[in-house]
Write a structure and sequence with these properties.
The complex is a heterodimer.
Chain A (H helix, E strand, L loop, with lengths): L1 H10 L20 E3 L6 H6 L6 E2 L4 E3 L8 H5 L4 E3 L14 E3 L15 H7 L3 E7 L5 H9 L11 E3 L8 E5 L4 H13 L5 E5 L1 H5 L21 E3 L6 H12 L1
Parallel strand pairs in A: 6-7, 6-8, 8-9, 9-10
Antiparallel strand pairs in A: 1-4, 2-3, 3-5
Helix pairs in contact in A: 5-8
Chain B lengths: L9 E2 L4 E3 L5 E2 L1 H12 L4 E11 L2 E10 L4 E10 L17 H11 L39 E5 L11 E7 L2 E8 L7 H7 L3 H9 L6 H16 L5 H29 L3 H22 L19 H25 L3 H7 L7 H7 L3 H5 L7 H4 L3 H5 L12 H25 L19 E8 L4 E8 L5 E7 L2 H11 L8 H8 L4 H4 L1
Parallel strand pairs in B: 3-6
Antiparallel strand pairs in B: 1-6, 2-10, 4-5, 5-6, 7-8, 8-9, 10-11, 11-12
Helix pairs in contact in B: 3-4, 4-5, 5-6, 6-7, 6-14, 6-16, 7-8, 8-14, 14-16
The chains are: A alpha/beta, B alpha+beta.
Chain lengths: 247, 507
């Protein structure tokens, strides 16, 4: 017993007291900012392996960006990744970062139904489905529940059955082989329910966008309640995104 | 270099050979050579695949010799016009079972004599598209006393999908069969279709997120080998440092997960936060907790400096103090030990039979560790002594992780004491020219075990084939065998004790 107490004492309190104000130190790559600097736009566009950059004006689409930082490495005067980890939103247009813009990425609160806040504000149970995920978003979703981040303090937890869940968190580009299982899981969740896409692969297919092994047809019929960009998203991105949705 | 009988070229790890220099053997000759080689304990198959070439299928097998540190490459060609049928080698060399199944699934080649010619991953470009992922032909036993339990593909928890089918007699599991393929994203095909180096690098990073560093190192070395870029020792050392950090982080998380499964909360929580120390260090080095964007071809964007060295040593000291103290307690707890001891045992013979690699081999008394048997330049400069345990049960897998963490920390300290990181490694190459008509093989010891990437170029220097083998390809069989005659409630701790990759297998 004494040994156990000593271990607890030696490790100290490692939980992050306030997740809403916590920062991630550089060189973490969060929300990018694009200056008005003149650069070879064609080359800038080509520097992106995921075709997330469009020009005139220069825009980075965070739905496609996997935060590799290649553009910022080649055009440091044009693109800079800040350490702002608050990236989640419920409107896909909010993921377009235009040149000159420095405002934060936020949720459009006006489109969130009131019952979502009242029903899930203090208790949100989620079912996670990995549909071709590479186990990195899953890794960070697991980390959300550990003693550092302790998402459970807000009443947010992952549950085993879709019947017990208030929503589904999808990771991965949605493989053909998982498409049906994902659909069945989604249909098994009672309403009102949330559909959350976690990670660049889930949002746009990521590097696998053009792969013939995917089947993303479910997304045509489902309203997405939250997009969480990143490859994988940092636990703080995930938790703060969920909190803005339900609080 | 070629073999004495001139039937196959002999490569070193990360070496390459002209595709024209690989003699094309007829199947009889090919089988005899392969069986002769694989019957020796020091040899094992690292990759075996087929790809379309002109008017038929070209077969390539890579066999690694752990004593001479060589890789033998044998080849065979099957004309389209001939019957697509080859005698199976699996009855003689059991470890080839999964490779023959894969060739059968992808190209429709029949292997008479194969005892278990079932689909592997329902790849999108498979030969028989009528066979759907829900049609997997499970093994069944007719009896009124037995029942089946099916679990998955969606599991209880944040975990990747797979389907597990148990045949049980009461609580006892007679047989477990695992069906995978749900995660199939077309990784190998995407690798060929993406044209730029950075895109391909990104595909390699996405093979298995928890082995980002391991897989991307194998990719980077393969590209460097095909482009004729010689290894740079300091860069190789930096990569190996990242590789060992990945190993320490995931091993720690696995120990934490095993503690969770036996309801040992102190271990579950504190091993969990210890992992955070390591992955946060990786983030402070390259900006990503899993090491994505760290490994690039020909150089790095995040050089390891003396300042990084100081921080790494501080992190390791902090980690080690707390890890040792907690491990000292955890590994002696009767409640933990009792649950793990003598359960889910794999014998040395079984491990050899299924061709187990990495941790699964080493916990069953089989020394297979690329860092020692086919070392990359970093492990040639700073030798690593592998940990091997004799027993093969859950406790061995639990213990192996603790010992490997200790060994990795010692290795990292040796590097930090002796390597001076005075000059930052250069920036990565954005474009490279691959030599035409070459084959290269790259092996690396990821935390799960042996990762093997193989690539071939065509006459224009374009990628003609890119083959990835995650260690889980061999090792899933071990989990199936472990479960025999255990209670079904022993499945979770067995599964966690292996922590095999779904996405690395499904590709």
């Amino acid at each position: 017993m004494i040994k156990e107490i000593k271990i607890i004492q030696h490790n100290g309190k490692q939980f992050i007291p306030d997740l809403t104000t916590a920062e991630v130190p550089y060189p973490f790559r969060g929300r990018p900012e694009i200056s008005y600097e003149n650069v070879d736009e064609k080359a800038l566009q080509n520097s992106c392996p995921l075709a997330a950059i469009s020009v005139k004006p220069v825009v980075i689409n965070l739905a496609k960006c996997n935060f590799c930082g290649e553009c910022a490495l080649r055009f440091p005067e044009k693109v800079k990744f800040t350490n702002d980890h608050r990236l989640a939103t419920n409107k896909i247009e909010n993921l377009l970062v235009k040149e000159g813009e420095t405002h934060k990425i936020e949720l459009d609160q006006s489109v969130i139904e009131k019952k979502i806040k009242t029903a899930f504000g203090r208790s949100l149970k989620l079912r996670q489905v990995s549909a071709g995920g590479d186990n990195s978003c899953e890794f960070e979703l697991n980390a959300c529940g550990n003693a550092n981040f302790d998402m459970g303090r807000y009443g947010i937890e992952f549950v085993a059955s879709p019947r017990h869940a208030d929503g589904v968190v999808v990771t991965g580009p949605i493989s053909e082989n998982m498409a049906e299982a994902l659909k069945i899981t989604w249909e098994a969740v009672p309403s009102p329910k949330l559909f959350i896409l976690c990670g660049v692969d889930a949002i746009s297919g990521g590097i696998f966008t053009d792969s013939k092994a995917l089947n993303r047809s479910l997304l045509k019929n489902v309203k997405v309640d939250l997009y969480i960009p990143g490859n994988p998203p940092h636990p703080l991105t995930i938790i703060n995104g969920l909190l803005s949705l339900i609080k | 270099m070629v073999s004495e009988n001139k039937k196959y070229p002999v490569l070193n790890n990360n070496g390459s050979v002209g595709t024209e220099e690989i003699p094309v053997l007829d199947y009889e000759d090919f089988s005899t050579e392969v069986v002769n080689l694989l019957q020796k304990k020091e040899n094992h198959c690292v990759t075996y695949f087929a790809y379309h070439q002109n008017n038929g299928l070209k077969f390539i097998i890579g066999i690694a010799n752990d004593v001479s540190h060589h890789i033998f490459v044998l080849s065979h060609f099957l004309l389209e016009s001939k019957p697509q049928k080859l005698d199976s080698l699996t009855p003689k060399i059991n470890a080839l079972h999964i490779f023959e199944r894969e060739i059968h699934e992808n190209h429709g080649v029949d292997f008479p004599g194969h005892p278990w010619l079932k689909p592997v991953r329902f790849a999108h470009n498979r030969a028989n598209k009528n066979l759907k992922v829900n049609d997997y032909p499970f093994y069944t036993i007719e009896s009124d006393e037995l029942h089946e339990v099916g679990v998955g593909p969606v599991h209880a928890g944040i975990i990747e999908p797979g389907h597990f089918r148990f045949i049980c007699n009461g609580e006892n599991v007679l047989h477990l069969e695992i069906q995978l393929g749900w995660q199939h994203r077309g990784v190998e095909q995407t690798m060929l279709e993406k044209q730029t180096l950075i895109q391909r690098n990104m595909v390699a990073e996405s093979i298995a997120g928890d082995t980002t560093v391991g897989h991307s190192i194998a990719f980077a070395r393969l590209m460097e080998s095909l482009a004729g870029l010689g290894p740079k020792t300091q860069l190789e050392v930096e990569r190996a440092v990242a590789l060992e950090l990945e190993r320490i982080a995931v091993h720690t998380a696995d120990i934490s997960a095993l503690c969770t499964d036996v309801a040992y909360n102190l271990g579950a929580n504190i091993f969990g936060i210890l992992r955070t120390l390591i992955i946060n260090f990786t983030q402070s080095w390259c900006g990503n907790r899993l090491g994505k964007s760290m490994i690039r071809v020909g150089g790095t964007n995040y050089p390891f400096t003396n300042e990084t060295r100081v921080r790494l040593l501080q992190t390791l000291a902090k980690y080690e103090n707390q890890f040792v103290e907690l491990a000292h307690l955890t590994y002696r707890l009767p409640s933990v030990e009792n649950r793990f001891d003598d359960i889910g045992t794999i014998t040395e013979q079984q491990a050899l039979q299924i061709g187990a690699v990495g941790m699964v081999a080493r916990m069953a008394n089989v020394l297979r560790d690329i860092r020692a048997t086919h070392p990359s330049p970093a492990f040639e400069k700073y030798n690593y002594s592998p940990v091997v345990l004799p027993k093969g049960d859950v406790f061995s897998r639990f213990l192996l992780r603790r010992k490997e963490i200790k060994q990795s920390i010692a290795w990292l300290r040796e590097v930090m004491d002796n390597e001076d990181f005075l000059f930052p490694s250069e920036a990565p190459k954005t474009e490279i020219t691959l030599k035409p008509l070459r084959l290269a093989i790259s092996l690396e010891e990821g935390w799960r075990g042996e990762i093997c990437h193989t690539a071939l170029t065509d006459k224009d220097g374009k990628l003609a084939c890119y083959k990835i083998k995650d260690p889980s390809m061999h090792n899933w069989k071990a989990l199936e065998l472990s479960l025999r005659n255990l209670e079904i409630s022993d499945f979770p701790i067995n599964n966690k004790s292996y922590n095999l990759s779904y996405c690395g297998f499904d590709l």
